[in-house]
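S.,

Sequence below, as promised.
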Amino acid sequence: IPASPSSSSSSSSPSSSNPSGGGGGGGADALTSILQCCQNLLSLRLNLVLLTPVSAAFHKSAATPLSLPRLRSFGFTALEHLGPAAADAQLFPAISEFLRAHPELTRLELDCRGDANQRALGYDASVLGCLPSLGKLRMLGVCVGKDLTPGLLSWILPRQLRALSLTGIPRRGAEGFLAPMKAGMPMGLRYVALPTAEVREENELGFVENVLPRSVRLISIGEKFVTVHRRGAASGGGGGGRSPAVSRATTASLHGS
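The prediction came back faster than expected:
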């Protein structure tokens, strides 16, 4: 899900080291400055290699009513944590708390891949408990951890969602994870991205028909994009007789809303 290029701030540098340990100093101080001082920020995406705990910055921001009041797009990717000193089991719970304080968000991306990374940084299904409070979300990208079940995810997805990206699904496990979610998916969902999954070309039509909600019109599987066209009888049965057709394209990125 591309971030808005305007009025945005992003970081791809490692957080600063903190020899004394703990949640203060270094990277936490730098993040606190961003979260407390950039009052006109609309979009913030952080891609971090963590050298020190930074959860304190998000705890402070969540407790400050005027922190980033105009924020509409937020992304946090924990690329890696370097060593035990960077372990921060309160990080993603603090981010979840921070997100609850920003119900006006329309875009959100949370990514933390790898079991060791998730354990060290507190990423589990409970972190996504903030989603029902984000009723204005239109675009959502999350990493699927081992404890996140299809039923739970479909239940907590905001109902106004238009685009959904799921990383962390096993390469051949997309159908098994998404099929139980079909009935509970938001009715207006138009785009589904599965960057880490694989669906064989000969199975794509069945995947669209049996796994995805009928509202979906564009699917991204790995680097391949599949456009869904519904065709068939336009009257009778509420369109139940319509069957899908798919067309394919391969590209590295998708731009636009």
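The beta strands are 8-11, 43-50, 73-81, 107-111, 139-143, 163-167, 191-194, 218-221, 224-231, 243-250.

Coffee later?
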